């Protein structure tokens, strides 16, 4: 059944290409269309800029780049993007959306787990990562590596886009009903309020007491297109619980932690992680917030999957404790069930996951 409003499934996204609402400068990758999103690919050049920016109403990104860029980098053979620098890269995908379709973007999971700060920019935009209904034009990706220098190239996929038609979000009552029927998290008495399902942090580490990782400084580069290529201890410091069930987040350090709850996204829904409340603590959680239909679903090899949390403290040290709420999952309806769910058939990297680093690192 196709609903009148909801998040576009894989076949709906493929139809956008057929209708000319989506075009690309080169042939699509075989796995580029995901169950509820499309991976976006880097174009042929990166512009190093003095600072991040938004174009604003009536202004094209390309025009502002001419004024703000320091130099251009050819990405066709691959290039290193340095920590702390800001780059703008034109994307290969171009939009010509109908007047009833909007979109939003988010870093891919592996991007967030490498602490690569990315945001999509559209012409005339007054906010990042939001594409208004009826947008016609190019897309650009702002990239700023925060912990590790990275190698990227034309075709590298750091961000993803979701398309929606109408109002697709679930209110609190609908979310309560969905949890009652489909068990969205491992706790029967889920904390549902403010339009989302609360997730808390696990600082026990279960049997091995490993609760997370802290990114090391002054490491080698990471090629974003290589899998299982790097030793964990060359880039990460493991963090163990010694009974306190708390962790002090040092300012400007990057941590990989995990939710206490196991998460489930039913096949007819998609979810997104949103910050819980900036007033509860001086830290940011989860750069990469899209959860696809089938995440943690028993049909495709999951029995609930933990949400991996990318955590960075702000200006002051901050103590987080086991069970502290750090974010909320907002669920949205799909237009229809995807042809392929997140999981084994798709070769998904993080199905049935616990605490897990990005796919770039060798398994322990």
The beta-strand count equals 26
Which structural class should the secondary elements be placed in? mainly beta
Please tell me what the overall shape is.
Answer: globular
**Radius of gyration, Cα only, in angstroms?**
20 Å
CATH class division of the largest domain: Mainly Beta
CATH-defined superfamily of the largest domain: Deoxyuridine triphosphatase (dUTPase)
| Mean pLDDT over all positions | 90
CATH topology of the largest domain: Deoxyuridine 5'-Triphosphate Nucleotidohydrolase, Chain A
* Separation, N- and C-terminal Cα atoms: 43 Å
Assembly annotation: single chain
Helix content: under 10%
Largest sheet: 6 strands, antiparallel
Q: DSSP strand (E) fraction?
A: 35-45%
SSE order, one letter for each helix or strand: EHEEEHEEEEHEEEEEHEEEEEEEEEEEEE
CATH architecture of the largest domain: Distorted Sandwich
Number of helices: 4
Characterise the protein shown here.
The chain has 364 residues and is mostly beta strands. The chain folds into two domains: 6-165, Deoxyuridine 5'-Triphosphate Nucleotidohydrolase, Chain A; 172-333, Deoxyuridine 5'-Triphosphate Nucleotidohydrolase, Chain A, CATH 2.70.40.10. The protein is built from four helices and 26 strands. Strand 14 (192-193) and strand 15 form a beta hairpin. The longest helix is centred in the middle third of the chain and has 11 residues, at 172-182. The chain is globular, with a radius of gyration of 20 Å. The chain starts with 5 loop residues before the first strand and ends in a 31-residue tail after the last strand. 45% of the residues are buried.
């Amino acid at each position: 059944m196709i609903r009148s409003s909801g998040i576009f499934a894989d076949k709906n996204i493929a139809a956008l290409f057929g209708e000319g609402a989506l075009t690309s400068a080169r042939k699509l990758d075989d796995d580029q269309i995901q169950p509820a999103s499309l991976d976006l690919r880097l174009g042929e050049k990166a512009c190093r800029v003095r600072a991040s920016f938004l174009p604003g109403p009536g202004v094209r990104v390309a025009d502002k780049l001419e004024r703000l860029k320091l130099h251009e980098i050819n990405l066709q053979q691959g290039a290193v993007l340095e920590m702390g620098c800001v780059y703008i890269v034109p994307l290969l995908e171009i939009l010509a959306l109908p007047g009833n379709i909007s979109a939003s973007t988010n870093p891919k999971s592996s991007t967030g787990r490498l602490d690569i700060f990315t945001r999509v920019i559209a012409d005339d935009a007054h906010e990042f990562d939001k594409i208004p209904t009826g947008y016609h034009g190019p897309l650009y990706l702002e990239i700023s590596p925060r912990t590790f220098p990275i190698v990227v190239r034309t075709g590298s996929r750091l961000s993803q886009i979701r398309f929606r038609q109408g109002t697709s979000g679930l209110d609190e009552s609908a979310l309560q009903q969905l949890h009652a029927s489909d068990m969205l998290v491992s706790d029967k008495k889920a904390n549902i309020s403010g339009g989302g399902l609360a997730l808390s942090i696990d600082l026990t580490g279960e049997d091995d007491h490993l609760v997370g990782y802290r990114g090391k400084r002054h490491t080698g580069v990471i090629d974003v297109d290589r899998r299982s290529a790097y030793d964990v201890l060359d880039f990460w410091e493991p963090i163990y619980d010694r009974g306190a069930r708390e962790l002090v987040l040092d300012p400007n350090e990057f941590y990989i932690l995990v939710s206490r709850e196991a998460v489930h996204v039913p096949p007819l829904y998609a979810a997104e992680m949103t910050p819980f409340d900036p007033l509860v603590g001086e830290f940011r959680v989860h750069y990469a917030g899209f959860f696809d239909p089938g995440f943690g679903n028993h049909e495709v090899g999951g029995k609930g999957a933990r949400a991996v949390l990318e955590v960075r403290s702000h200006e002051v040290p901050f103590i987080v404790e086991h069970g502290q709420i750090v974010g909320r999952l907002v669920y949205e309806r799909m237009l229809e069930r995807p042809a392929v769910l997140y999981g084994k058939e798709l070769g998904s990297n993080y199905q049935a996951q616990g605490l897990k680093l990005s796919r770039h690192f060798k398994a322990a």
